Amino acid sequence: MDELQLADIIKPENKVYGKSKIMTDTPMHYCYGCSHGVVHKLIAEVIEEMNIQEDTIGIAPVGCSVMMYYYLDIDWLQAPHGRAPAVATGYKRTNPKKYVFTYQGDGDLAAIGTAETMHAVNRGENIVMIFINNAIYGMTGGQMAPTTMIGQSTSTSPHGRDVEVNGYPLKITELIAQLPGSAYVTRQSVHTPATVRKCKKAIRKAFENSAKNIGTSFIEVVSTCNSGWKLDPVESNKWMEENMFPFYPLGDIKDSVHDDVEKYSVQKNKK
Amino acid sequence: MGDLRLMKGNEVIAEAAIRCGCDGYFGYPITPQSEVMETLMLRRPWEETGMVVLQAESEVASINMMFGGASSGKKVMTSSSSPGISLMTEGISYMAGAELPGVIVNVQRGGPGLGTIQPSQADYFQATKGGGHGDYRLIVLAPNSVQEMNDFVDLGFELSFKYRNPALILTDGVIGQMMEKVELSEFKPRLTDKQIEEKYGEWIASGKKPDRERHIKTSLEMVSEVQEKNNERFQAKYRAMEKDEVRFEAIQCDDAEYVIVAYGVSSRISQKAVVLLREQGIKAGLLRPITLFPFPTQKINQLTDKAKGFLSVEMSSGQMIEDVKLAVNGKTKVEHFGRMGGVIATPGEVVDAVKQKLIGG
User: Fold this and answer.
1) How many CB pairs under 8 A join A and B?
2) For chain A, which residues score pLDDT lower than 70?
3) B90 CA: distance to closest CA in chain A (Å)
4) How far is the alpha carbon of A175 from chain B, nearest alpha carbon, in Å?
5) What are phi and psi of B254, to 5 degrees?
6) For residue B323, is pLDDT > 80?
7) What is the pLDDT of residue A267?
8) Residue A16 domain-assigned?
9) pLDDT greater than 90 at residue B130
10) C-alpha–C-alpha distance, residues B58 and B28, integer Å
11) C-alpha to C-alpha distance for A46 and A58, rounded to whole angstroms
12) How near does any CA of chain B get to the CA of A128, in Å?
């Protein structure tokens, strides 16, 4: 029997996996072990599978993913720090048929942009918000974030986050779920093949929701930052599982549409 | 005759926005300009033209909503008053950096800080020297009547799309609050998405098409040499504005020995002062900058041939005077007269200032 040649193997019918056409060939600037690349890939795959490249607008934040527009072949807006939900609102309101998503880190979404985050969701903007929570400021070199764990050491909490000084880590995703404007709120991760598949399903659902005009879909991805955490990628995954998951438990938090407007409406106070 | 009305300046801003085919207004209440959004909400333009009107959670959010809409080539605007404009300067800088059009209205009140809700012209530096961080300029239009409040909304959009740069209508609490006769503009339909694509397709983020590279609306550039090129491109736009977009009104300047330079409400007061001075045999004139950036530098310089002195009349401690001095370039005397804190000068005070500071001094 003849030996198998490469050309015999590389055939469409044998293909089980490929890089999404939405991903560009630009080498990523992310560190080894960083979660960003995986989440980018999942978003790209969802856009390709839903065939919405021409109708999707990404809003990049300030932070490590500020240059996300290098990696996904769609049109992009790059927002001021924390303002992505407001930028997304302006785009979506004036272009209601587009799929608009924000992609933000914990400093961007849960510190400087808290007001924009809460109010965009409270208005029920029909957008997708993807929230990368790695409990640290990555881009600026590992400073304490609103989501930094108690006792976690960072460059601005070198002796560990002290509750007396800095308060508790902010569970903004739980707050988001309290708002009537949110339709789907979930917390995912991408550190194992199984969690990657689950996260992709969540992203797909969120994008499908935005065409239904039922409110904001919000996905937190508990993520690693091995450079900021000063751990190698494998240790980072372990540290995340042991330290972050108990406080930031994975799973859907909300999947329902608010329908009690009548109940809470008051009589007109003025003719 | 067109559509004649008696209206407040702020109400006219709202009406002009609807009539010029504006796609979206994003705002936050602040005195003395809240009538802009109130008028829009009452008018419900979303039913009439499809224009979006949204009350944001802050001025920070409104300007960023503008960033979003402008990125798709839509005509978007906001209005506020001084403290609110300070909050917007971050977003305005980002819009200038990303080369996005849009109209911002500042109905000035006194400062610093919360200052006063009474009218002022103390935001001249902020308006004309950039305002936020980085090397940028806004196209700054200064209406001095309710009619110009109507006219400059459309003009602001025209210029801001021409240069792909935000335009600022710098007005004040008097012009915003006072009622005057105004001839409203004819209705212009909003552009359809197809028309927007045809006009602005080469730069807008309207969804990646198969036949073009992706469009990225950002102010970020990590390569210094490329960012320097960006800065040079911005500067070239500002120089082009200085060449082609200077607008001013010269009243009795031809033989003027004493020239008052004033914009907005101060120009209305100064116009009366010129009449009073002429009655007393003093050859006074008024040079009213309509664009504060670009500033009518050349025109003011020409007036130095005959003028013995210039008086910059502003409701501030003296900000525009610096540009007047640069234009006069040491050839003759330049003085300032202004009231602060929301106090409105009278024509008599301006007459006295001309006599004391220019003639007597």
Assistant:
1) 128
2) 1
3) 8
4) 17
5) -55, -40
6) yes
7) 87
8) no
9) no
10) 6
11) 13
12) 15
CATH classification of the domain holding B115 = 3.40.50.970
Pairwise CB contact (< 8 Å): A115 & B214 = no
Residue A11's pLDDT is 87
Cβ–Cβ under 8 Å, residues B184 and B146: no
Provide the domain limits for residue B349: 248-360
CB proximity B84 to A under 8 Å? no
Residues B144 and B57 in one domain: yes
Instruction: Give A-chain residues touching B99 at CB under 8 angstroms.
Output: none
A91: domain CATH number? 3.40.50.970
Closest CA to A107 of A59, A142, A151, A152: A142
**Do B172 and B318 sit in the same domain of this protein?**
no
User: A116: nearest CA in chain B?
Assistant: B61
* Residue of A23, A24, A95, A119 for testing the chain B interface, max B β-carbons within 10 Å: A95
With respect to residue A158, please indicate whether it lies within any of the assigned structural domains.
yes
Residue B1 reports pLDDT greater than 70? no
Count of domains in chain A? Answer: 1
Q: Which of B151, B184, B217 is the last residue of a domain?
A: B184
Q: Which residues does chain A have within 8 Å of residue B222's beta carbon, measured at their own beta carbons?
A: 67
Residue A62: domain span: 28-257
CB contact under 8 A, B214 and A75: yes
Answer yes or no: is pLDDT of B172 > 60.
yes
- Interface test with chain B among A47, A57, A75, by most B beta carbons within 10 Å: A75
Which residue, chain included where needed, has tokens 């004036």? A94
> Sheet containing B52-55: which strands, arranged edge to edge?
B52-55, B24-27, B76-80, B102-108, B166-172, B139-141, B291-293
In this prediction, residue A1 carries a pLDDT of 58
Q: Look at residue B177 and tell me if it is in a domain.
A: yes
Which whole number is the average pLDDT over B250-276?
98
Confidence of residue B169 (pLDDT cuts 50, 70, 90): very high
Instruction: Note whether A116 contacts B94, CB cutoff 8 Å.
Output: no
Query: Which alpha helices (DSSP H) does chain B contain, by range?
Result: 9-19, 35-43, 45-48, 59-71, 82-97, 124-128, 146-163, 173-177, 193-200, 224-244, 264-279, 297-303, 320-328, 347-353
| Nearest by Cα to B62 from B40, B88, B39, B37 | B88
- End-to-end Cα separation, chain A, in angstroms: 90
pLDDT at position A6 is 86
Give yes or no for a contact between B328 and B300, defined as CB atoms under 8 angstroms apart.
yes
Contact residues on chain B for A119, CB-CB shorter than 8 A: 56-57, 61
Can you tell me the mean pLDDT for B253-276?
Answer: 98
Is residue B237 assigned to a domain? Answer: no
